TrEMBL record:
<dbReference type="GO" id="GO:0016746">
    <property type="term" value="F:acyltransferase activity"/>
</dbReference>
<protein>
    <submittedName>
        <fullName>3-oxoacyl-ACP synthase</fullName>
    </submittedName>
</protein>
<dbReference type="InterPro" id="IPR014030">
    <property type="entry name" value="Ketoacyl_synth_N"/>
</dbReference>
<dbReference type="InterPro" id="IPR016039">
    <property type="entry name" value="Thiolase-like"/>
</dbReference>
<dbReference type="Pfam" id="PF13723">
    <property type="entry name" value="Ketoacyl-synt_2"/>
</dbReference>
<feature type="domain" description="Beta-ketoacyl synthase-like N-terminal">
    <location>
        <begin position="40"/>
        <end position="212"/>
    </location>
</feature>
Length: 264
Protein backbone atom coordinates (compact mmCIF):
# COMPACT_ATOMS: atom_id res chain seq x y z
CA UNK A 1 0.00 0.00 0.00
CA UNK A 2 1.53 3.35 -1.02
CA UNK A 3 2.16 5.93 1.71
CA UNK A 4 1.29 9.56 1.00
CA UNK A 5 1.79 12.94 2.65
CA UNK A 6 2.64 16.56 1.89
CA UNK A 7 6.08 18.13 2.12
CA UNK A 8 6.12 21.54 3.83
CA UNK A 9 9.74 22.15 4.82
CA UNK A 10 13.24 21.13 3.76
CA UNK A 11 16.60 21.35 5.49
CA UNK A 12 19.92 20.27 4.01
CA UNK A 13 23.58 20.40 4.96
CA UNK A 14 26.31 18.50 3.13
CA UNK A 15 29.82 18.99 1.73
CA UNK A 16 29.62 22.01 -0.57
CA UNK A 17 25.91 22.47 0.22
CA UNK A 18 25.65 24.53 3.42
CA UNK A 19 21.86 24.93 3.41
CA UNK A 20 18.75 24.31 1.35
CA UNK A 21 18.76 27.61 -0.64
CA UNK A 22 22.36 26.98 -1.72
CA UNK A 23 21.61 23.37 -2.59
CA UNK A 24 18.46 24.33 -4.49
CA UNK A 25 20.46 26.63 -6.76
CA UNK A 26 23.01 23.86 -7.43
CA UNK A 27 20.34 21.20 -8.04
CA UNK A 28 18.57 23.52 -10.47
CA UNK A 29 21.80 24.06 -12.40
CA UNK A 30 21.83 27.77 -11.59
CA UNK A 31 25.16 27.54 -9.75
CA UNK A 32 28.03 25.06 -10.11
CA UNK A 33 28.74 22.64 -7.32
CA UNK A 34 31.94 23.52 -5.46
CA UNK A 35 33.40 20.82 -3.24
CA UNK A 36 34.02 21.99 0.34
CA UNK A 37 33.91 20.49 3.84
CA UNK A 38 30.57 20.54 5.64
CA UNK A 39 30.15 23.76 7.63
CA UNK A 40 28.38 23.10 10.94
CA UNK A 41 26.80 26.14 12.63
CA UNK A 42 27.07 26.58 16.38
CA UNK A 43 23.97 25.13 18.12
CA UNK A 44 22.95 28.39 19.77
CA UNK A 45 19.51 26.98 20.61
CA UNK A 46 21.11 24.70 23.22
CA UNK A 47 21.81 25.82 26.80
CA UNK A 48 25.51 26.74 27.30
CA UNK A 49 26.49 23.47 29.04
CA UNK A 50 24.98 21.26 26.34
CA UNK A 51 26.33 23.57 23.63
CA UNK A 52 29.89 22.88 24.80
CA UNK A 53 29.28 19.13 24.67
CA UNK A 54 27.55 19.13 21.27
CA UNK A 55 29.17 16.78 18.76
CA UNK A 56 29.29 17.12 14.98
CA UNK A 57 26.22 14.93 14.70
CA UNK A 58 24.26 17.09 17.14
CA UNK A 59 25.23 20.29 15.33
CA UNK A 60 24.25 18.72 12.01
CA UNK A 61 20.84 17.43 13.10
CA UNK A 62 19.89 20.66 14.85
CA UNK A 63 20.88 22.70 11.80
CA UNK A 64 18.85 20.72 9.26
CA UNK A 65 15.88 20.08 11.55
CA UNK A 66 15.55 23.73 12.50
CA UNK A 67 15.95 24.80 8.87
CA UNK A 68 13.14 22.52 7.72
CA UNK A 69 10.86 23.70 10.54
CA UNK A 70 11.64 27.37 9.82
CA UNK A 71 10.99 26.79 6.11
CA UNK A 72 7.49 25.62 7.04
CA UNK A 73 7.02 28.14 9.88
CA UNK A 74 6.33 25.16 12.18
CA UNK A 75 6.52 25.05 15.97
CA UNK A 76 9.45 22.70 16.67
CA UNK A 77 8.15 21.96 20.15
CA UNK A 78 5.07 20.20 18.75
CA UNK A 79 6.56 18.12 15.93
CA UNK A 80 6.85 14.35 16.07
CA UNK A 81 10.31 13.37 14.86
CA UNK A 82 12.07 10.46 13.18
CA UNK A 83 15.88 10.40 13.40
CA UNK A 84 17.53 8.00 10.96
CA UNK A 85 21.26 7.37 10.52
CA UNK A 86 23.56 4.62 9.29
CA UNK A 87 25.74 5.02 12.39
CA UNK A 88 26.20 7.23 15.41
CA UNK A 89 28.88 9.83 16.21
CA UNK A 90 32.01 8.62 14.42
CA UNK A 91 34.45 10.92 16.20
CA UNK A 92 33.06 10.04 19.61
CA UNK A 93 33.27 6.33 18.77
CA UNK A 94 36.92 6.82 17.77
CA UNK A 95 37.69 8.63 21.04
CA UNK A 96 36.05 5.85 23.08
CA UNK A 97 38.07 3.19 21.27
CA UNK A 98 41.28 5.15 21.89
CA UNK A 99 40.48 5.44 25.61
CA UNK A 100 39.62 1.75 25.94
CA UNK A 101 42.93 0.84 24.30
CA UNK A 102 44.91 2.50 27.14
CA UNK A 103 45.61 1.36 30.67
CA UNK A 104 43.12 3.97 31.94
CA UNK A 105 39.80 2.58 30.73
CA UNK A 106 37.65 5.11 32.58
CA UNK A 107 35.13 6.69 30.17
CA UNK A 108 33.85 10.20 30.80
CA UNK A 109 30.07 10.53 31.29
CA UNK A 110 29.91 13.00 28.39
CA UNK A 111 31.63 10.54 26.04
CA UNK A 112 29.30 7.79 27.18
CA UNK A 113 26.03 9.64 26.72
CA UNK A 114 27.15 10.92 23.31
CA UNK A 115 27.93 7.35 22.21
CA UNK A 116 24.34 6.12 22.04
CA UNK A 117 22.45 6.10 18.75
CA UNK A 118 19.70 8.39 20.06
CA UNK A 119 22.06 11.11 21.34
CA UNK A 120 21.09 13.53 18.57
CA UNK A 121 17.39 13.00 19.32
CA UNK A 122 18.06 13.67 22.99
CA UNK A 123 19.78 16.97 22.26
CA UNK A 124 16.88 17.89 19.95
CA UNK A 125 14.46 17.35 22.83
CA UNK A 126 16.60 19.51 25.12
CA UNK A 127 16.91 22.27 22.53
CA UNK A 128 13.26 22.40 21.46
CA UNK A 129 11.67 21.30 24.78
CA UNK A 130 9.60 18.92 22.70
CA UNK A 131 7.50 16.22 24.37
CA UNK A 132 6.20 14.91 21.03
CA UNK A 133 6.78 11.30 19.90
CA UNK A 134 10.29 10.52 18.65
CA UNK A 135 11.62 7.48 16.77
CA UNK A 136 15.32 6.70 16.24
CA UNK A 137 16.17 4.07 13.64
CA UNK A 138 19.06 2.70 11.62
CA UNK A 139 19.12 0.86 8.29
CA UNK A 140 22.80 1.05 7.28
CA UNK A 141 22.95 2.42 3.69
CA UNK A 142 19.14 2.25 3.47
CA UNK A 143 18.67 4.56 6.45
CA UNK A 144 17.12 7.43 4.48
CA UNK A 145 14.52 5.13 2.94
CA UNK A 146 13.81 3.48 6.29
CA UNK A 147 13.37 6.87 7.93
CA UNK A 148 11.11 8.09 5.14
CA UNK A 149 8.86 5.02 5.44
CA UNK A 150 8.68 5.37 9.21
CA UNK A 151 7.84 9.09 9.05
CA UNK A 152 5.21 8.58 6.34
CA UNK A 153 3.66 5.77 8.37
CA UNK A 154 3.31 8.06 11.36
CA UNK A 155 1.76 10.81 9.24
CA UNK A 156 -0.75 8.37 7.70
CA UNK A 157 -1.69 6.61 10.96
CA UNK A 158 -1.44 9.39 13.55
CA UNK A 159 -2.45 12.26 11.25
CA UNK A 160 0.16 14.58 12.70
CA UNK A 161 3.05 16.57 11.16
CA UNK A 162 6.29 14.59 11.41
CA UNK A 163 9.84 15.81 10.90
CA UNK A 164 12.25 13.33 9.31
CA UNK A 165 15.92 14.02 10.09
CA UNK A 166 18.27 11.70 8.17
CA UNK A 167 21.98 12.17 8.73
CA UNK A 168 25.43 10.57 8.69
CA UNK A 169 28.88 11.37 10.01
CA UNK A 170 32.41 10.34 9.11
CA UNK A 171 34.74 8.09 11.14
CA UNK A 172 38.43 8.96 11.61
CA UNK A 173 41.07 6.37 10.74
CA UNK A 174 41.44 3.48 11.28
CA UNK A 175 37.63 3.01 11.30
CA UNK A 176 37.40 5.17 8.19
CA UNK A 177 39.10 2.41 6.20
CA UNK A 178 36.10 0.17 6.96
CA UNK A 179 33.37 2.83 6.75
CA UNK A 180 34.56 5.51 4.35
CA UNK A 181 31.82 8.14 4.64
CA UNK A 182 33.85 11.25 3.67
CA UNK A 183 32.09 13.92 5.77
CA UNK A 184 28.89 14.58 7.64
CA UNK A 185 25.69 15.41 5.79
CA UNK A 186 21.95 15.17 6.18
CA UNK A 187 18.48 16.14 5.06
CA UNK A 188 15.30 17.02 6.95
CA UNK A 189 11.76 16.88 5.55
CA UNK A 190 8.66 18.12 7.33
CA UNK A 191 5.75 15.88 6.29
CA UNK A 192 2.11 16.72 6.97
CA UNK A 193 -1.16 14.77 6.56
CA UNK A 194 -3.05 17.53 4.72
CA UNK A 195 -2.30 20.20 2.19
CA UNK A 196 -1.80 23.75 3.44
CA UNK A 197 -0.79 27.05 1.88
CA UNK A 198 2.85 26.14 2.69
CA UNK A 199 2.82 22.75 0.98
CA UNK A 200 5.58 22.29 -1.59
CA UNK A 201 4.54 18.95 -3.08
CA UNK A 202 2.56 15.79 -2.46
CA UNK A 203 4.74 12.72 -1.94
CA UNK A 204 3.74 9.07 -2.43
CA UNK A 205 6.13 6.19 -1.76
CA UNK A 206 5.71 2.60 -2.92
CA UNK A 207 7.98 -0.45 -3.29
CA UNK A 208 9.84 -1.05 -6.56
CA UNK A 209 12.36 -3.36 -8.20
CA UNK A 210 13.66 -0.65 -10.53
CA UNK A 211 17.19 0.71 -10.49
CA UNK A 212 17.83 3.74 -8.29
CA UNK A 213 17.97 7.12 -10.02
CA UNK A 214 21.40 8.66 -10.52
CA UNK A 215 22.44 12.30 -10.87
CA UNK A 216 23.96 13.62 -14.08
CA UNK A 217 26.55 15.78 -12.27
CA UNK A 218 29.41 13.43 -11.27
CA UNK A 219 30.30 15.33 -8.09
CA UNK A 220 26.69 15.24 -6.87
CA UNK A 221 26.37 11.58 -7.81
CA UNK A 222 29.47 10.89 -5.74
CA UNK A 223 27.81 12.60 -2.75
CA UNK A 224 24.67 10.52 -3.28
CA UNK A 225 26.59 7.26 -3.04
CA UNK A 226 29.16 8.34 -0.42
CA UNK A 227 26.79 9.61 2.31
CA UNK A 228 23.76 7.34 2.93
CA UNK A 229 21.41 10.19 3.92
CA UNK A 230 22.08 11.77 0.52
CA UNK A 231 20.44 8.87 -1.30
CA UNK A 232 17.68 11.48 -1.09
CA UNK A 233 19.33 13.78 -3.67
CA UNK A 234 17.24 12.70 -6.72
CA UNK A 235 14.10 13.50 -4.70
CA UNK A 236 15.59 16.82 -3.61
CA UNK A 237 16.43 17.69 -7.20
CA UNK A 238 12.77 17.34 -8.18
CA UNK A 239 11.78 19.52 -5.24
CA UNK A 240 14.43 22.11 -6.11
CA UNK A 241 13.12 22.35 -9.67
CA UNK A 242 9.49 22.47 -8.57
CA UNK A 243 8.75 19.55 -10.86
CA UNK A 244 6.31 16.68 -10.66
CA UNK A 245 7.62 13.24 -11.48
CA UNK A 246 8.90 9.90 -10.21
CA UNK A 247 12.33 8.93 -8.93
CA UNK A 248 13.51 5.59 -7.61
CA UNK A 249 15.61 5.71 -4.44
CA UNK A 250 18.02 3.14 -3.02
CA UNK A 251 16.61 0.98 -0.24
CA UNK A 252 17.23 -2.65 0.77
CA UNK A 253 18.19 -4.50 -2.42
CA UNK A 254 16.46 -5.92 -4.32
CA UNK A 255 13.65 -3.67 -3.03
CA UNK A 256 13.87 0.01 -3.93
CA UNK A 257 11.45 2.88 -3.33
CA UNK A 258 9.45 4.66 -6.00
CA UNK A 259 8.82 8.25 -4.94
CA UNK A 260 6.13 10.14 -6.81
CA UNK A 261 6.01 13.92 -6.41
CA UNK A 262 3.14 16.20 -7.41
CA UNK A 263 4.38 19.79 -7.19
CA UNK A 264 2.00 22.37 -5.76
Amino acid sequence: MPLSAWIEGIGLLAPGLPDWPSARAVLRGEQPFTAAPSLLPAPTILPPAERRRASRVVKLTLAIGLEAAAHAAADVGTLATVFSASGADGHNCHALCEQLATDDRQISPTRFHNSVHNAAAGYWGIATKSMAPCQVICGFDASFGAGLLDALGQVVIDRQPTLLIAYDSEYPEPLHAKRDTPDCGGVALLLTPTRTTRSLAAITVSPSNASAAQLAEPALENLRTAIPALRSLPLLQLLARGESGRVCLDYLAPMQLNVDLQAC
